[in-house]
Each structure stands twice: as structure tokens, then as C-alpha cells.
């Protein structure tokens, strides 16, 4: 019911509705939860439960997702406060742009390694991760940010002697059969890099729309409130 | 007005394409095709060093498709010297020691390191295949790991244990440690010409392009 109401409002006056939304918490919370949730799933489900080790670009993608999530949290504190909204937007833009770049690189590496003819024009594995601003994230939190997988390969690798439960075994068999992570593994449809590109692309597109709407409202002469 | 603009754009594109086709850039560009190492590898004139690790997917792919034809085309110009990287893989040190033993054996028999009869090459390819194709991780430890390479060349563990005591082996393993700083720059595989020119792998576009670049750098 609420969704129908929102959709109706969006159709009847898109600029005003989107402007109202960006000054409310829910969109910021959705962004933070979605991006933070993806990192959580990547770590706890794929890395720990299914033994799919993260590669160098994968830990960069996690970092970019957390920047977007941080932007969401900052915005959600109170989006009506201009400074919080600006910082939140800048953080989300930065994270999504970095994420798009890492995803493109990972996809190129993936294709170079999996295509019989592909090879040239790509730099593969780095021996040590280099995060923006040389942040030593891999030392601070190796479990989350130290690359332990090989670039372009994300199939599960179960250490010897581990006893798997039936659900674990089912998922591992599925990803092992497709030789890596795919959105739809049996069809090898959309690799991890492409799925991440889509997620960052969506964030970026929404941000652009929101900033445009914001600009229109400012141009119409509705000054921002600087305090809550 | 708009048509004239479009015509100019089309003309411009054709001119640029013509220039690109008729005058290919032949000179290697520092910063794009290669970089000069701050700390060059000593005594490496007329060499092509390749820093690699058995657990690196691109090293495997380059060794399957590129290394042999490129090194053959460079015979008499540069000497091919593979540098196993000790620090990356879990069994990097064991691999380096075994590779050193096998390279010495190849050298004593006068077998080239790119020859199919090279013991070094046989062991290296066995590790690549085990790690990347069979997803082997040698959960049984060091002995398990060494067995893969030793089985590939038909060498007993006792023979290896005796051969590894040769001081030359330790000397080679020590010499290869310079590969660590080089690997940190852009990752591996890392090709270094004359011990000082590190080739940017991402800008290698073809086998012949790599050969020409190495020839040019070797003559610098």
C-alpha cells in the first residue's frame, strides 16, 4: 500500500518526490544496508562457509562497498543537515566510482584468464594489496582485506580434512561445477565482477538522479537548511 | 553547419587512423612500456629475467603460450633466466630449492630451460597443472608438495635431499630474492631486461610486440 502511494507520488511529481525522499532517512539506510550486507555475505557466506577465497580486486571491491555504506550511514544520521548530506553523497560517489573501476579491472582479468585467446593487455596478480591512500587494511583486518585467492579464479577450495554439511556441499558442488562464482552458476551467467559492476552502477545512477533533482530544487530557489 | 562539423569529425578520425597505421610507434616509451628499476639487478647484462610463481594464474598462461616462442626468437640476443618468487606461494621456498636443483642439472647436461626435456620445465609445468587445473593445495605439507615436482622429473627424495646441499642451490635461491622487490611493483609475471628495464605487463599487446620491446631494451 505504502509502495503504491510512493509510486503514485513519484509519477505525479518526480522532482519534488525524489527531493523529499533524499531528505528522509530510508534511501540512505537502504544504500548502507545493501552495500554493507553484500560485504557481509561475501565474507561470511562465500569466504568462510563456501571457502571461496577473495582475490586482490575482490578486497578492493569490499573496500569500495564499505565507503558507499559509510556514505549511507552518514547521510542517514540526518539527511536534512546539509553538511551530512554532502559528505554522505561524496562518500557514496567516491565508493561507487572506485567500485566501478575495480569491477572493470576484475572482469578484464577474469576474461583474460578464462578465454582461450585472451591474455594480453592485462596486469594480473599483485603480490601485495595497495588500498587507496596506502591504507594498511590488510594488516589491520587480514580476515576481511587480505587477498588469499588468485585473481580471476573464485571457485571454492576446501582444505583437506574439512567435513562439509549437506547445504555447504550442495553450494560448493554448484560453484565448483561452474568453476567460479556466477549469478546463475549453471549458466555461467554474470561473473562476480559483472554483478559488482551492476551494484555500483545502480548506486551511481541513483546518486546522479538525486544530485540532479537536488540541483533543480536549488535552482528553483528553495535554499537548503543548514541545521536540523 | 552541423553537417560540416560531422564531416570534420569523420575526416579527423580517418587522418588519425591513417597516421596510426602508417607510422606505428616503434620506440619503446619509458613509463608506458617499461620502467627503469631504481635498484638494478647486478651482473644481468643481456638477460631476460622472468619473476614468476607456480600459484600465479597469469604466469601459467604466459608460460603455456608466450615464454617458449618469445625466448626462441630472442636466442643470441638475451639469455632467459627464470626467477622463482619465494615469497608469494605457500611452498615458495621449497619450489625455489627444487627449481634450483633442477636448473643445475639442466645446465650440466646443456639442456635449455625452455626445452621439453628440461627437468626444471617439467617440474614447473607439473606444479602449474596441479595448482591451477587440479586445484591441488598440498594439504599434506612440504613432503606432499615436493613429491609432485619430484615425480614429474623421476627424481627420488633421497637424491633431492643430497642435491639440495650443493652451495650453488642456496646461492641461486639467495640471488632470486631480488625478485621480491620487483614483484611488488606491478605483480607477476615480471619481465626484466638487462636487470634494469621492467616491462609493464598490461601494455604487452602481442607476442611479437614483446619480442621487439625486449630486443630494443636489450640494445640500450
Could you describe the 3D structure shown?
The complex is a heterodimer of chains A (228) and B (220). By secondary structure, chain A is mainly α. In chain A, 64% of the residues lie in helices and 3% in strands. Chain A has 9 helices and 2 strands; from the N terminus they run H-H-H-H-H-H-H-H-E-E-H. Chain A has a two-stranded antiparallel ribbon with strand order 1-2. In chain A, strand 1 (182-184) and strand 2 (189-191) form a beta hairpin. The longest helix of chain A is centred in the middle third of the chain and has 33 residues, at 82-114. Chain A is elongated. Chain A starts with a helix and ends in a 9-residue tail after the last helix. The mean pLDDT of chain A is 91. With 220 residues, chain B is of the alpha+beta class. Chain B has helices at residues 2-22, 57-65, 67-73, 92-109, 119-133, 142-153, 157-163, 167-176, 178-186, 207-218, and strands at 34-36, 47-52, 79-84, 190-193, 197-199. Chain B has a 5-stranded mixed beta sheet. Chain B is globular, with a radius of gyration of 21 Å. Chain B starts with a helix and ends with a helix. The model of chain B is unreliable at 19-25 (pLDDT under 50). At the A-B interface, loops of A face helix 2 and helix 9 of B.
According to DSSP, the number of beta strands of chain A is: 2
Q: Let me know the largest β-sheet of chain B.
A: 5 strands, mixed
Low-confidence regions of chain B: 19-25
Structural class of chain B: alpha+beta
Q: Low-confidence runs of chain A (pLDDT<50, min 5 residues)? A: none
Assembly state: heterodimer
Task: Give the strand order of the largest sheet of chain B, numbering strands 1, 2, ... along the chain.
Answer: 1-5-4-2-3
Main β-sheet of chain A, in a few words? 2 strands, antiparallel
Radius of gyration of chain A: 20 Å
Please list the strands of the largest sheet of chain A in the order they lie side by side. 1-2
Query: DSSP strand (E) fraction of chain B?
Result: 5-15%
Q: List the helices and strands of chain B in order.
A: HEEHHEHHHHHHEEH
Beta-strand content of chain A: under 5%
The N- to C-terminal Cα distance of chain A equals 30 Å
Number of separate strands of chain B: 5
Helical amount of chain B: 40-55%
Which two chains touch over the largest interface? A-B, 21 and 30 residues
Amino acid at each position: 500500500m505504502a509502495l503504491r502511494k510512493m509510486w503514485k507520488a513519484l509519477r505525479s511529481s518526480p522532482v519534488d518526490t525524489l527531493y523529499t525522499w533524499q531528505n528522509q532517512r530510508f534511501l540512505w539506510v537502504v544504500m548502507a544496508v545493501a552495500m554493507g550486507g553484500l560485504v557481509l555475505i561475501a565474507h561470511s557466506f562465500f569466504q568462510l562457509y563456501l571457502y571461496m577465497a577473495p582475490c586482490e580486486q575482490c578486497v578492493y571491491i569490499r573496500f569500495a562497498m564499505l565507503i558507499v555504506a559509510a556514505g549511507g550511514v552518514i547521510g542517514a544520521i540526518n539527511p536534512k543537515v546539509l553538511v551530512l548530506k554532502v559528505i554522505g553523497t561524496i562518500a557514496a560517489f567516491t565508493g561507487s566510482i572506485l567500485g566501478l573501476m575495480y569491477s572493470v579491472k576484475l572482469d578484464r582479468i577474469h576474461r583474460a584468464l578464462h578465454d582461450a585467446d585472451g591474455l594480453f593487455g592485462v596486469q594480473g596478480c599483485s603480490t601485495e594489496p595497495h588500498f587507496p591512500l596506502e591504507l594498511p587494511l590488510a594488516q589491520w583486518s587480514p580476515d576481511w582485506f587480505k587477498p588469499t585467492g588468485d585473481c580471476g579464479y573464485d571457485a571454492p577450495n576446501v582444505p583437506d580434512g574439512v567435513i562439509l554439511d549437506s547445504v555447504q556441499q550442495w553450494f560448493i558442488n554448484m560453484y565448483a561445477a561452474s568453476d567460479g562464482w556466477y549469478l546463475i552458476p549453471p549458466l555461467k551467467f554474470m561473473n562476480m565482477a559483472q554483478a559488482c559492476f551492476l551494484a555500483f552502477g545502480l548506486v551511481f545512477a541513483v546518486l546522479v538522479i538525486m544530485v540532479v533533482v537536488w540541483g533543480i530544487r536549488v535552482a528553483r530557489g528553495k535554499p537548503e537548511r543548514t541545521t536540523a | 553547419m552541423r553537417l560540416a562539423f560531422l564531416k570534420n569529425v569523420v575526416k579527423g578520425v580517418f587522418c588519425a587512423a591513417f597516421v596510426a597505421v602508417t607510422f606505428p610507434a616503434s620506440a619503446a616509451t619509458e613509463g608506458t612500456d617499461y620502467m627503469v628499476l631504481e635498484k638494478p639487478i647486478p651482473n644481468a647484462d643481456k638477460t631476460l629475467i622472468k619473476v614468476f610463481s607456480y600459484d600465479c594464474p597469469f604466469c601459467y598462461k604466459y608460460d603455456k603460450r608466450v615464454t617458449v616462442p618469445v625466448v626462441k626468437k630472442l636466442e643470441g640476443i638475451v639469455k632467459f633466466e627464470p626467477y622463482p618468487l619465494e615469497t608469494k606461494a605457500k611452498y615458495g621456498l621449497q619450489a625455489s630449492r627444487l627449481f634450483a636443483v633442477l636448473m643445475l642439472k639442466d645446465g650440466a647436461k646443456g639442456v635449455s630451460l625452455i626445452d621439453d626435456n628440461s627437468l626444471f620445465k617439467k617440474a614447473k609445468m607439473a606444479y602449474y597443472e596441479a595448482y591451477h587445473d587440479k586445484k591441488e593445495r598440498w594439504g599434506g605439507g612440504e613432503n606432499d608438495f615436493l613429491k609432485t615436482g619430484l615425480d614429474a622429473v623421476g627424481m627420488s627424495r633421497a637424491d633431492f635431499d643430497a642435491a639440495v646441499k650443493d652451495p650453488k642451490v642456496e646461492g641461486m635461491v639467495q640471488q632470486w630474492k631480488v625478485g621480491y622487490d620487483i614483484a611488488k611493483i606491478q605483480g607477476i609475471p615480471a619481465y626484466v631486461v638487462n636487470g634494469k628495464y621492467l616491462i609493464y605487463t598490461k601494455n604487452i599487446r602481442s607476442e611479437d610486440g614483446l619480442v621487439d620491446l625486449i630486443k630494443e631494451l636489450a640494445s640500450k
